[in-house]
């Protein structure tokens, strides 16, 4: 008996037609936008650099998030060394356009969370 | 033997001093900002209204998120009927100031997620 699962388009997989809910389907977790922050604002492009951020992302979570971001077209992965194999991660234009989301979160956090301070790169971009 | 757990201030509980990571500690999940959207933009203030949103939030998740938002000072809960007991949920000023985060997510989603369309209330507020 062949296994059949109904085909689901990306749109059908969304929770609703709301673009806020749809965006949160992709980036609505505690780690994804931290990785986007590192790629966009902190000049980190190698796996080891991303893994070394002060938030201490678990390695399996980082690998899963990068794969998901690549699958959604927000991140590109390019091999820059064959021996040993090394990869460079960069945001696509679609991924880079999350900048205003990061900016709004940083504004809110800085205003309401005592002791936080936006990264220097975000202060310059303000 | 008394159980002792080291006291952790709110700041110490944060992953880092980054306001983006700190904001995501509070709202970095797929449901919280959907609830904030309903309260801020869609005029929903009762538990049943929030539970009836098209995204289909599970009731236990909605109850947990409301409790967390109240605990963090983003939502206020007021009893408006004694028999039967009924409550009204509203955003505090701190919670309402997440509006630019919602706006940025809606902008990004509408641009990049085919088939999504921002709620009418967000179109007016654009």
Outline the structure in words.
2 copies of one chain form a homodimer. The first copy, chain A, is mostly helical and 126 residues long. The first copy, chain A, contains 7 helices and 2 strands, in the order ααααββααα. Chain A has helices at 19-27, 32-41, 47-51, 59-71, 93-96, 99-112, 120-124; strands at residues 75-81, 86-91. In chain A, strands 1-2 form a two-stranded antiparallel ribbon. In chain A, a hairpin with a 4-residue loop joins strand 1 (75-81) and strand 2. Chain A is globular, with a radius of gyration of 17 Å. The termini of chain A are far apart. The model of chain A has no long low-confidence stretch (mean pLDDT 90). Chains A and B meet through helix 1, helix 2 and helix 6 of A and helix 1, helix 2 and helix 6 of B.
Gyration radius of chain A, rounded: 17 Å
- Class derived from helix and strand content of chain A: mainly alpha
Helix count, DSSP H or I runs of 4 or more residues of chain A: 7
Note the run of SSEs of chain A as H and E: HHHHEEHHH
* Strand arrangement in the largest pleated sheet of chain A: 1-2
Which pair has the most extensive contact?
A-B, 49 and 49 residues
Instruction: Please tell me the overall pLDDT of chain A.
Output: 90
* Main sheet makeup of chain A: 2 strands, antiparallel
Portion in strands of chain A: 5-15%
What spatial form of chain A do the alpha-carbon principal axes imply? globular
Number of distinct beta strands of chain A: 2
> What are the low-pLDDT stretches of chain A, counting only 5+ consecutive residues below 50?
none
What's the assembly state of these chains?
homodimer
The percent of residues in helical segments of chain A reads 40-55%
Separation of the first and last Cα atoms of chain A: 59 Å
